[in-house]
Design a protein that fits this description.
The structure holds two protein chains of two kinds. Chain A is mainly beta. Chain A has no helices and eleven strands. Chain A starts with a strand and ends with a strand. Chain B is 0% helix and 54% strand. Classes of the chains: A mainly beta, B mainly beta. At the A-B interface, strand 5 of A face strand 5 of B.
Chain lengths: 116, 112
């Protein structure tokens, strides 16, 4: 498997469930991102793990919890979600070099989440 | 806060004509401006980017122009083809920040 992969590709969960989304990058990158994509906000950054530092978007509810055990894997733990959380969740990775700016982000195929 | 405004939200052009999408940014320290293309049901992919030390960059039928004084940059697609139909996103960032600030996207429709 090459590039950025995400599992599952589709997920239906009830509001009381707990589930996790998984992302894996095979590009040797050192930064990973979670984005939420919906009709209301086409690309909304949720979390960044860059050079092993987590950067949060303060508007993300606590029912979303990221985990980055190493530079190749990223998880998004979900609990007590609301119907408005239904969206496409995209993972991305990039190679960041301190002080040298931003480089291309490579996206995964996304997980289509439906909260019932 | 920092933001990027993108216009228009939808653009419909005749096949073979040119398309132009414009973005303005608020952070004057921004120095990196990428454009991503997302085809229906697919992931966003980088198609072209520009850094603030140049004013224009071309790659075959696509080009990006940057006006740092006015804080805006544009994507130009010439001789449009059906496969250019997609949503295009602009973004901006600065060297000291790994986060991209994204525009709201433009849905480009190529009419046969």
């Amino acid at each position: 498997e090459t590039g950025v992969t995400q599992t599952p590709r589709h997920l239906v969960m009830g509001m009381t469930n707990k589930k996790s989304l998984k992302c894996e990058q095979h590009l040797g990158h050192n930064a990973m991102y979670w984005y939420k994509q919906s009709a209301k906000k086409p690309l909304e950054l949720m979390f960044v793990y860059s050079l092993e530092e987590r950067v949060e978007n303060n508007s993300v509810p606590s029912r979303f919890s990221p985990e980055c055990p190493n530079s190749s894997h990223l998880f998004l733990h979900l609990h007590t979600l609301q119907p408005e959380d239904s969206a496409l969740y995209l993972c991305a990775s990039s190679q960041e070099i301190s002080g040298q700016g931003v480089y291309e982000q490579y996206f995964g195929p996304g997980t289509r989440l439906t909260v019932t | 806060g920092e933001n990027v405004e993108q216009h228009p939200s939808t653009l419909s052009v005749q096949e073979g004509d040119s398309a132009v999408i414009k973005c303005t940014y608020s952070d004057s320290a921004s120095n990196y401006f990428p454009w991503y293309k997302q085809e229906l049901g697919k992931r966003p992919q980088l198609i072209i980017d520009i850094r603030s030390n140049v004013g224009e960059k071309k790659d075959q039928r696509i080009a990006v122009t940057l006006n740092k004084t006015a804080k805006h940059f544009s994507l130009h697609i010439t001789e449009t083809q059906p496969e250019d139909s997609a949503v295009y996103f602009c973004a901006a960032s600065r060297d000291s920040n790994y986060q991209l600030i994204w525009g709201a996207g433009t849905k480009l429709i190529i009419k046969p």
